[in-house]
Structures are given as structure tokens and as C-alpha cells.
């Protein structure tokens, strides 16, 4: 079997996602305007420019006294306190030669250019006395020091996290335009699978991949339909694929994509659509399949078949399904961040395939490696907090620099 490089496969997968988006009827790709409280995890459909500056008026960064720096004489007799401004109040212009008592976030009186924090002010007979002349402009938050009116604060394609939504809120926006959620159907194949809670009769194993996919998809904020376990037969697999294609953008399966006679997924996809690529030069995850399933109306749903070994499922989801989902959701930049890191382990035999080794950051700033890297050993994925992206044939000695991808960047 000839294996495709991951980079080539990603080009094809993303081209497939882009081509799919072109086939979606215009009416189904209209951004929805959602309230901020529903925007978390959604992908922004347009750039957002702020209609106001933040802050919109000069205000104080400290509890203290607002004044004109030029009025202060170090060790002098002190200045009268002419007004008190709390946050939310509107001050009057500052009487020359006086100070205003002011609190954090309160608007600066016209004529004041500086705030002195209260710890640096002595009150003597009701006058504010200073031991030093403050630097003009100190502790003043200028108009627009966070956001200038008209500037772009959020970009089309941004995935909206808590900070994005808070930034929009700070400019008074109460709704944001987002793309529709991607619709994903999943099923597991394998007559050996039973669900947790059921008795484990001889020959069976528990279905862990179902929960893996559920969790991974929940983290990506898609509309997920879990079609359960499908028996190992060509007809049953074809029937579920047909059904799923009708109202989903992407179908993801686990298991049944290798070369055994009981691996019905690829033949079923070929019968109901087409396979565009199969088998990658990566370990784990070699037998990944990508293609499409025909719909009755002539359009297609995308298909990705993940290998059944649980670690292979997780790694191929992270490396291949996630970028496709993010692209379908409206994001341009879908590559995870690789961090150059120090290996505190040795890996004496590189593989012909590019390897993704389960590793964990240690307190010394290096990486430790899980002792068992078999693709059936799910324990490795809980122990690890990311993967080392190890090129084909590469051995690793302690102290070598390797490329690390954190699960936090890869699984959500
Ligand atoms: N002769 C060859 N055999 C295999 C090859 C090969 O190139 N030649 N490739 C191996 C590699 S690499 C992988 S990865 C697996 C992938 O096989 P499949 O995708 O067809 O998956 P299955 O055979 O159905 O299952 C593999 C393994 O994973 C377990 N499994 C499956 N589904 C689940 C699930 N939902 N939850 C938990 N565990 C699951 C299954 O019991 C098997 O142990 O093929 C190799 N074979
Ligand atoms: O590619 Mo398989 O996923 O190595 O075990």
C-alpha cells in the first residue's frame, strides 16, 4: 500500500472542505446574528469594527486624587479638595489649583491631567499634600487606550472565546454574526463492540471510541448526531452512510478502514460515493480514509474514516478531522501550534512513518515520554498532555529539540 504524507493529505482534506462549502446552497450559508450569551465557541462571519472608543472618556486607573501636575509643589502647603468623583458620576471642570477626590474607573474632570494614588498623598488639615511632583499623565486611562473608534476588534473566522465575547461587550455590542454550526454524524463499526454497562461476553470489548468522538466534537461546538454502533456488514454500513449523508456535512466513523475482510467501511463508501485518499505515512493512524457520500439530490457529504485503534482515532481526529471541521466552520487558519521543546527521553528507533508520540511537559521545562506507545494503549493519552511530532526515521536523544503540540491546542 502506498502511503501519502500527512502534509499532502491535509492539502487534499482542506481542499475537500473548501469545495464542499462551495456546494452548500447560499440559503444554508447565511450568517446568523446571535446574542452574546449564545456566541461562545461559534465562528465569526464578518470583521467587527468598534463603533466607539474604549474607554470613551479619560478615567482614573487608581483610587486617589485627580489634578493638574503643574499645580503640585513637592513639600508645598497642599491643595484644596474641590469635588469628589466616584465611578458612574459626571465631574465638573476642575477648579484651577485644586484636586478632585477620585476613584478607579471614574471620569477625569476637565482640566485634570494626572492622578496621584492615595498612598502617595498626605491629608493635612483637609488639604492634599505631596512629597514629590507626579509625572504628568500618570494613572490616567486615555480615550481609546484599549480600542479606538472604527478599529477592527474581531476578525472574520475568529472562534469566539470568553475574551472575544467580552471585548465585543465592552463596545456595547449585544449580538454577533456567526456561521451556522457544522453538522457531523458519527458511528462506530465492529461486531466486537459492546457499550459500557453491558456484560462483557467473550470476544467483546467496550466501545471507548464512541465517547472519545462525543467529547472531541462537543469541544468543537458542532451539531453532532451519534448513530451508535453499526454491525460489520456491507449493507448495514451502506445504509447508515446514505442516511447520514442526507442531512450532515461530514460523516466520521471509527474502525473498519484497514485491509481485513471484516473492514467494510471503505467498500461501503466506494459503493455510496468515493474514496479520495486512503492510508497516510503516520504512526499511529495509517489507514485513515477520506472521501464523500452521494446524496439523493446529487450533492455530497464529506466522509472521514478513522482507524479503530483508540489512540489512532484520537490522533487522526486531532490531525485530520479537526482542521476539516474548523475550515467547514469558517476558519482560515487551522494548523495547531508546534512548540520547539527539549526531549528528556530517548527514542532510539525512528519509524518509517512520521510518528506522533504521547508525551508530557515536566517541571524542568522538558518533555517526558509515555513508556508504551502502542496505538491500542489509551492510557497514554490520559497520561500525556500532547504529542511529539517526530519526522520519519528520526531517533531522539535526551537534550534534542523536538516539536511538541499540546492537546489543549489540538483537541478543542
Ligand atoms: N494486515 C494488516 N493489518 C492491519 C494493518 C495493516 O496495514 N495491515 N493496519 C493496522 C493499523 S496501523 C491499524 S490502526 C488498524 C486499524 O484497523 P481498522 O480501522 O480497520 O479498525 P478495526 O480493525 O475495526 O479495529 C482496530 C482495533 O481497534 C479496536 N476498536 C475498534 N473500534 C473500537 C471502539 N469503538 N472502541 C474501542 N476499540 C475499538 C478493535 O477492537 C481493534 O483492536 O489495523 C491494523 N491492522
Ligand atoms: O496506524 Mo495504526 O494507527 O499505527 O496502529
From TrEMBL:
<keyword id="KW-0500">Molybdenum</keyword>
<dbReference type="GO" id="GO:0005829">
    <property type="term" value="C:cytosol"/>
</dbReference>
<keyword id="KW-0501">Molybdenum cofactor biosynthesis</keyword>
<dbReference type="GO" id="GO:0046872">
    <property type="term" value="F:metal ion binding"/>
</dbReference>
<comment type="similarity">
    <text>Belongs to the MoeA family.</text>
</comment>
<comment type="pathway">
    <text>Cofactor biosynthesis; molybdopterin biosynthesis.</text>
</comment>
<keyword id="KW-0808">Transferase</keyword>
<dbReference type="InterPro" id="IPR001453">
    <property type="entry name" value="MoaB/Mog_dom"/>
</dbReference>
<keyword id="KW-0460">Magnesium</keyword>
<dbReference type="Pfam" id="PF00994">
    <property type="entry name" value="MoCF_biosynth"/>
</dbReference>
<dbReference type="InterPro" id="IPR036135">
    <property type="entry name" value="MoeA_linker/N_sf"/>
</dbReference>
<dbReference type="InterPro" id="IPR036688">
    <property type="entry name" value="MoeA_C_domain_IV_sf"/>
</dbReference>
<dbReference type="GO" id="GO:0006777">
    <property type="term" value="P:Mo-molybdopterin cofactor biosynthetic process"/>
</dbReference>
<protein>
    <recommendedName>
        <fullName>Molybdopterin molybdenumtransferase</fullName>
        <ecNumber>2.10.1.1</ecNumber>
    </recommendedName>
</protein>
<dbReference type="InterPro" id="IPR005110">
    <property type="entry name" value="MoeA_linker/N"/>
</dbReference>
<dbReference type="InterPro" id="IPR038987">
    <property type="entry name" value="MoeA-like"/>
</dbReference>
<dbReference type="GO" id="GO:0061599">
    <property type="term" value="F:molybdopterin molybdotransferase activity"/>
</dbReference>
<dbReference type="Pfam" id="PF03453">
    <property type="entry name" value="MoeA_N"/>
</dbReference>
<comment type="function">
    <text>Catalyzes the insertion of molybdate into adenylated molybdopterin with the concomitant release of AMP.</text>
</comment>
<dbReference type="InterPro" id="IPR008284">
    <property type="entry name" value="MoCF_biosynth_CS"/>
</dbReference>
<dbReference type="InterPro" id="IPR036425">
    <property type="entry name" value="MoaB/Mog-like_dom_sf"/>
</dbReference>
<dbReference type="Pfam" id="PF03454">
    <property type="entry name" value="MoeA_C"/>
</dbReference>
<dbReference type="InterPro" id="IPR005111">
    <property type="entry name" value="MoeA_C_domain_IV"/>
</dbReference>
<keyword id="KW-0479">Metal-binding</keyword>
<feature type="domain" description="MoaB/Mog">
    <location>
        <begin position="185"/>
        <end position="327"/>
    </location>
</feature>
Amino acid at each position: 500500500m502506498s502511503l501519502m504524507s500527512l502534509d499532502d493529505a491535509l492539502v487534499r482534506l482542506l481542499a475537500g472542505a473548501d469545495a464542499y462549502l462551495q456546494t452548500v446552497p447560499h440559503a444554508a450559508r447565511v450568517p446568523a446574528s446571535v446574542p452574546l450569551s449564545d456566541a461562545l465557541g461559534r465562528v465569526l462571519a464578518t470583521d467587527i469594527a468598534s463603533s466607539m472608543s474604549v474607554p470613551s472618556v479619560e478615567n482614573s486607573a487608581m483610587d486617589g486624587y485627580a489634578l493638574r501636575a503643574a499645580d503640585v509643589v513637592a513639600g508645598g502647603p497642599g491643595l484644596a479638595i474641590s469635588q469628589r468623583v466616584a465611578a458612574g458620576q459626571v465631574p465638573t471642570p476642575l477648579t484651577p489649583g485644586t484636586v478632585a477626590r477620585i476613584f478607579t474607573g471614574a471620569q477625569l474632570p476637565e482640566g485634570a491631567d494626572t492622578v496621584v494614588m492615595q498612598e502617595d498623598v498626605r491629608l493635612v488639615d483637609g488639604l492634599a499634600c505631596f512629597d514629590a511632583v507626579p509625572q504628568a499623565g500618570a494613572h490616567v486611562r486615555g480615550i481609546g487606550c484599549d480600542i479606538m473608534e472604527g478599529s477592527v476588534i474581531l476578525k472574520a473566522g475568529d472562534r469566539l472565546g470568553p475574551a472575544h465575547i467580552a471585548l465585543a461587550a465592552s463596545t456595547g455590542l449585544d449580538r454577533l454574526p456567526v456561521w451556522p454550526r457544522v453538522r457531523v454524524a458519527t458511528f462506530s463499526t465492529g461486531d466486537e463492540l459492546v457499550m459500557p454497562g453491558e456484560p462483557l461476553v467473550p470476544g467483546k470489548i467496550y466501545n471507548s471510541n464512541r465517547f472519545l468522538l462525543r467529547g472531541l466534537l462537543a469541544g468543537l461546538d458542532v451539531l453532532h448526531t451519534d448513530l451508535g454502533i453499526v454491525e460489520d456488514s456491507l449493507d448495514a454500513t451502506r445504509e447508515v452512510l446514505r442516511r447520514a449523508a442526507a442531512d450532515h456535512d461530514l460523516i466520521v466513523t471509527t474502525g473498519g478502514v484497514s485491509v481485513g475482510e471484516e473492514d467494510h467501511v471503505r467498500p461501503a463508501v466506494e459503493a455510496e460515493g468515493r474514496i479520495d485518499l486512503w492510508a497516510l505515512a503516520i504512526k499511529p493512524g495509517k489507514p485513515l480514509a477520506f472521501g464523500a457520500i452521494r446524496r439523493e439530490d446529487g450533492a455530497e457529504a464529506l466522509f472521514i474514516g478513522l482507524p479503530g485503534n483508540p489512540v489512532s482515532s484520537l490522533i487522526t481526529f486531532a490531525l485530520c478531522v479537526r482542521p476539516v471541521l474548523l475550515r467547514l466552520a469558517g476558519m482560515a487558519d487551522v494548523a495547531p501550534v508546534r512548540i520547539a521543546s527539549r526531549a528528556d527521553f530517548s527514542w532510539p528507533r525512528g519509524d518509517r512513518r512520521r510518528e506522533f508520540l504521547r508525551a508530557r511537559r515536566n517541571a524542568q521545562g522538558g518533555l517526558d515520554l509515555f513508556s508504551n506507545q502502542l496505538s491500542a494503549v489509551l492510557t497514554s493519552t490520559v497520561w500525556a498532555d500532547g504529542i511529539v511530532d517526530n519526522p520519519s526515521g528520526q531517533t531522539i536523544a535526551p537534550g534534542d529539540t523536538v516539536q511538541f503540540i499540546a492537546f489543549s491546542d489540538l483537541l478543542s
